[in-house]
Design brief:
Layout (H helix, E strand, L loop, with lengths): L1 H17 L1 E2 L4 E3 L11 E7 L5 E6 L3 E7 L5 E8 L4 E9 L2 E11 L2 E10 L4 E11 L17 E3 L5 E7 L6 E9 L5 E10 L4 E8 L5 E8 L6 E2 L2 E2 L1 E9 L2 E6 L7 E10 L2 E9 L5 E2 L1 E8 L4 E9 L2 H16 L4 E2 L1 E8 L5 E16 L5 E17 L5 E9 L6 E6 L2 E9 L3 E2 L5 E3 L7 E8 L5 E8 L12 E3 L2 E5 L9 E4 L1
Parallel strand pairs: 1-36, 30-34
Antiparallel strand pairs: 2-39, 3-4, 4-5, 5-6, 7-8, 8-9, 9-10, 11-12, 12-13, 13-14, 15-16, 16-19, 17-18, 19-20, 21-22, 22-24, 23-26, 24-25, 27-28, 28-29, 29-30, 31-32, 32-35, 33-34, 35-36, 37-38, 38-39
């Protein structure tokens, strides 16, 4: 028994030594107490003068807070929110957070508001953008997922675009509205994809400095179901929308090419549509795909399908099983982050998500179902400036809540997450990021070099310290800011720079 204890102690010490402290500068703010208790963070941004603005929601209010360079609260404003007014999107540029809500005063009436919060001047303004009449309980905005698909801001901050669904009983119809971001005056309104039969589902939205909008989405062949017998029930289409003009290009796929979703990136003024592809069906992943768009004549000028490298499977399954697994495709991964560095490099990160259920019997009275949400492995791939897949890695982890965030700094990719006190180095070469039973946790920075090499840098042990939630953090002005979790009686910030 003593020998076994000595061996386990030695392994734990070696593991702890292998996990370095963070290379980033770590600072914590003073603790503060909220006047209104809520953790429903909808927006968090930092200006170039290092003022941080946060927008949260409570049951009946919208809360605006400002923090100084040391993340000490200097201003707070509470705004009444209508009972049937809900958040639909947010944009940030310069010193202003634009916070969009839709109000449903009647069954068929919808009013869209823009709440403008200026962090520098501490000013607030609410303005009605437009109103509409809908059929039954039809929503105006679709694409309620991790990636915002209904609002987009031009790179220079001059325009913002808003995409709405205008589906009626016998007609599928969609509208783009483009506004001046400073005056909130509408520049133009354009309908597109009107069709009595075919349903359109947006995947991504972008607007140029000239006010031209590109809406990327799925055009369904029949009905609204994603797939039929494992095959996609849709085709991808890129719509180019300007004042008085609508054009489109369909993204052609081969017989053995299946794609669940695509996102738009702008690399050197060239649009790239990137995502994951499968050779089996739309719910699986064989590798990364990249479609390069010529916007002069709106055509696909190049297409690349690139299989996941061996390192992805090594990270997930270990060297013993990886060779058997790389013929099998991954599943249940959904894109979280698409990061670019201005030099043509693009990182795409996706997390494995699924739900399991368990029936709990209560005896003669019957029982009830419980549901567990799984946020597990993370898939990372890097596209270079030429659109090729440079490398791929993955993180073997287990969690029951959104648990990580990512940013690029000094040519490296940083993935911030909470895991067990010491990362588990398994015999097959894998590093597992999860917290075991009765184990305390730690905050980690997984750092990926430009060539894909990874180091596991510990930021802090959470026991005895404030527990932070990276998922709600933000990276701006070369620093990452995250808040303490909802269980903390007092709030606090951590900054990594």
């Amino acid at each position: 028994m003593k020998r076994l204890f000595l061996v386990l102690f030695t392994i734990s010490m070696l593991t702890a030594q292998a996990q370095k402290t963070s290379k980033l500068n770590v600072t914590e703010s003073e603790q503060y107490k909220d006047d209104v208790k809520t953790f429903s963070i909808k927006s968090i941004h930092t200006t170039t003068s290092n003022l941080t603005g946060i927008v949260r929601e409570s049951k009946r209010d919208i809360l605006f807070d400002i923090f100084d360079n040391n993340l000490k609260k200097t201003f707070s404003k509470v705004v009444d929110r209508e009972k049937k007014e809900r958040f639909v999107g947010e944009l940030f540029f310069g010193d202003e957070i634009k916070y969009f809500t839709v109000y449903s005063p009647k069954k068929k009436e919808r009013i869209v508001y823009c709440h403008t919060f200026n962090i520098a001047t501490k000013s607030y303004n609410k303005k009605e953008i437009f109103s509409a009449t809908v059929e039954k309980n039809q929503g105006l905005f679709s694409g309620r997922n991790k990636r915002q698909t209904s609002f987009a801001l031009s790179p220079d901050g001059q325009y913002f675009a808003m995409a709405t669904d205008d589906i009626k009983k016998n007609l599928n119809s969609y509208t783009i509205r483009v506004y001046n971001a400073q005056t909130l005056e509408m520049q133009y309104k354009q309908s597109y994809r009107e069709d009595a039969e075919r349903y359109y589902q947006p995947n991504d939205l972008t607007v140029s400095n000239e006010g031209t909008v590109y809406s990327l989405g799925k055009l369904f062949k029949k009905g609204k179901r994603q797939k039929k017998g494992g095959e996609a029930n849709y085709e991808f289409v890129l719509n180019e929308i300007s004042k008085g003009s609508v054009k489109d290009v369909f993204i052609g796929l081969g017989e053995d090419e299946h794609i669940q979703s695509l996102t738009i990136t702008d690399i050197d003024n060239e649009l790239h549509l990137i995502g994951f592809y499968s050779e089996k069906n739309v719910g699986r992943i064989k590798g990364g795909c990249n479609f390069m768009i010529d916007t002069n004549n709106l055509s696909v000028k190049n297409k690349k399908l690139l299989a996941l490298p061996q390192e992805v499977y090594d990270d997930l399954y270990g060297y013993r099983k990886a060779k058997r697994k790389n013929d099998k495709e991954l599943s249940n991964f959904y894109i979280d982050y698409v990061l670019t560095d201005g030099q043509g490099t693009t990182y795409m990160l996706a997390e494995e998500f699924y739900v399991t259920s368990h029936y709990v019997s209560t005896g003669t009275t019957g029982g009830y179902w419980t549901y567990t949400y799984h946020y597990d492995d993370v898939l990372i791939i890097k596209f270079n400036a030429e659109g090729n897949l440079d490398w791929g890695r993955s993180i073997f982890k287990r969690s029951t809540a959104p648990s990580y965030n990512a940013f690029m700094k000094n040519g490296e990719l940083h993935v911030i997450l909470n895991s067990g006190k010491n990362l588990k180095e398994k015999k097959d070469g894998r590093t597992k990021a999860s917290t075991g039973w009765f184990e305390s946790s730690s905050l980690y920075d997984f750092v990926y070099s430009a060539s894909g090499e990874v180091s596991y840098d510990k930021i802090q042990d959470n026991k005895g310290n404030t527990f932070y939630t990276p998922f709600y953090g933000t990276f701006e002005n070369e620093k990452f800011i995250m808040m303490s979790n909802r269980r903390s009686k007092k709030k606090q910030f951590m900054t990594l720079e």
